[in-house]
Design a protein that fits this description.
alpha+beta, Lipocalin, 3 domains, eight-stranded antiparallel beta barrel, 19 strands
């Protein structure tokens, strides 16, 4: 604002002339160009400088550019203006007031969680619920369902509409609960009901969720899980709370690009996980979950300083041989962790203890660990043949027959209701930049994960510290 004041001849540079005495020699066209570079949040203050500035700020070019640069609008805004909605109104009454809900969110639906992406789409702000592909087609694209939208169609005031149900848009509401949290409410829940009652609603939901009828799902345990999910999630059709989540930051040393992946989880179907890297480890955190291991929990933890060299294919087909390799590393890791804990305890009063803790915090590799993926040698392995050992079950039999690297890791298993959670050993298999797998040795099952390729705006974490805080909070939400 001080710069603008000097431009028009008011303020200290001209000994505080009268506010209305705007005698800037700059032509209006240049002022429009200058104002177009100023963030929209600061433009109201610019308008207070003088009448000339206030008049120039009515120029649509300024607000058109703000809509494009701040909110990534790709539509031809001139066409929208011809239709009666100005870029100024679009920015001031829709985009700016609801800017805080753009990005990725996790709905609070008990253990099931979810993934909501709120985006700007023309005259709308739309909240899309992302759904995994139908089980077990893990490499199919994600499905989307609109949950709400906000628009300026019917008046000069932003209108919130609920999109849930099968009777079209109806009245809704959005409230900001606190920072990085908001809630939606439906004001016409009768639009969610179907003429055939709950039975018809269940059949429709089942077709959307699983792509088949209950009769086509022969596994009795899976039928029970599906019915349980329908009963539980249908309680949230009128009001939902969402908490902000971020995509993980990437570094050049990462084994592969971090991000979101779809994975197979046995009778629970497909779930969404977030893969992130933390020094010498990789972590997969559930964004969607199930009654055994809920959303927000750390489903996989990979020790990148513990590579596994696979045996030849004949030996790899023997689950006992693979178990011997992985369990040997598992026992060694536990021994070293116990030795480290004892050493830290014994030297708690000594000068070396602080250094030991610093090394642990930074993922120092104890003993004779091999280098992690950040070393040059870790990136120079050729693809090697891969086959699942006999006796290991997989939801999807179509998986890559070559892999790049394998690492020791642990997977989280638990009883119904997240009872008796336990981290059990397994094998992380990197196939390529967009696919990886995990062999759960105790369960004798295989999960295949495939990357979400959707472009997600307003979603990246500002820094690693903020991202790690979010991960800790996610676990507390569903613990």
């Amino acid at each position: 604002m001080a710069v603008c004041a000097r431009l028009c001849g008011v303020g200290q540079s001209r000994r505080c002339r009268r506010r209305d005495a705007c005698d800037s020699d700059l032509p209006p066209e240049l002022l429009v160009e200058i104002f177009s570079l100023i963030p929209g949040t600061a433009l109201p203050n610019v308008a207070l400088v003088c009448k000339k500035f206030k008049q120039i700020l009515k120029t649509e070019t300024i607000w058109r550019r703000r809509c494009v640069e701040e909110f990534g609008m790709k539509d031809d805004l001139r066409k929208l203006e011809v239709g009666g909605v100005s870029s100024h109104d679009l920015y001031v009454k829709l985009l700016h007031p609801y800017r805080h809900i753009l990005g990725l969110w996790q709905p609070d639906i008990g253990p099931y969680g979810g993934l909501l992406n709120v985006v700007v789409d023309g005259l709308f702000i739309i909240g899309w619920m992302y759904l995994p592909p139908h089980d077990p087609r893990v490499e199919d694209p994600m499905r989307r369902r609109p949950l709400f939208r906000i628009h300026l169609w019917e008046s000069k005031k932003a209108t919130v509409e609920c999109m849930y149900g099968h009777k079209g848009p109806h009245k809704g509401d959005i409230q900001t609960v606190k920072k990085d949290e908001f809630s939606t409410k439906c004001n016409q829940t009768d639009h969610h009901r179907m003429p055939g009652g709950r039975q018809e609603e269940f059949r429709t939901w089942l077709e959307e969720e699983w792509g088949r009828t209950l009769e086509e799902i022969f596994h009795e345990h899976m039928q029970e899980l599906i019915l349980m999910k329908f009963i539980y999630t249908s309680q949230y059709d009128n009001c939902l709370t969402y908490r902000r989540i971020y995509l993980p930051p990437a570094t050049p040393s990462d084994l592969l690009q971090p991000g979101l992946f779809k994975g197979t989880y046995g009778s629970h179907g497909l779930e969404i996980v977030m893969l992130s890297f933390h020094h010498k480890s990789a972590r997969a955190t559930k964004l969607t979950g199930d009654p055994n291991v809920p959303a927000g929990q750390l489903t996989l933890e990979i020790n990148l300083s513990r590579p596994v060299v696979l045996p030849d294919l004949e030996q790899l087909c023997n689950i006992e041989e693979l178990s011997r390799l992985v369990l040997g590393i598992h026992e060694e890791v536990h021994r070293e962790a116990e030795q480290q804990a004892n050493h830290t305890k014994e030297g708690a009063c000594g000068s070396d203890s602080a250094e030991d803790e610093v090394d642990a915090d930074h993922g120092a590799c104890p003993g004779n660990c091999q280098p992690g993926p950040s070393s040059t040698s870790a990136h120079q392995h050729d693809d090697q043949p891969f086959v699942l050992p006999l006796g290991v079950t997989a939801r999807n039999e179509v998986y890559p027959r070559t892999c790049r690297k394998c690492f020791y890791g642990t997977g989280l298993i638990a009883g119904h209701g997240f009872t008796s959670p336990e981290r059990t050993p397994g094998l992380f298999v990197l196939f390529d930049q967009d696919r990886f797998g995990f062999i759960w040795l105790e369960l004798k099952s295989f999960s295949l994960y495939s990357r979400l390729t959707d472009q997600l705006a307003h979603a990246h974490a500002p820094n690693m510290e903020r991202f790690e805080d979010m991960l800790r909070n996610m676990q507390s939400w569903t613990s």
